[in-house]
Give the backbone structure.
Amino acid sequence: MRMINRSDLEAFGYFDMFQNSPDYEEDPVRFYSQFVEDKILTKGRDRLIENTLGLAGEAGEVSEKVKKLFRDKNRFKDEDILKELGDVLFYTVALANIFGGNLRKVMEMNMAKLDDREQRGVLKGSGDNR
């Protein structure tokens, strides 16, 4: 099975779509959010399940590559991890969309949470409400 490469994506018109879109230039987060919505194949409860399992699966693929790097000394290209992180991003945005958010909101909430933990000296540790 052959991996999709840049020339394949260029043939699909994705690079032009992103680089030449006024919507992308104006608000890339909203543009990507709509891009994700246009690719979603499931609805309702099925979508929530599929998107959540998709996120877990793609994060697992990132973890698997790093595990094999340490365990088996399997080298990989940075691009390989970036592609998997793109899949993680896709499902993250899909789930954010379900819950009335977007990537910007997720980022802002995460930065505020981590800044608060840092100020309180609890960056280390475990638990959501530390």
User: Anything to note?
Assistant: The chain has a mean pLDDT of 87. The chain has seven helices and no strands.
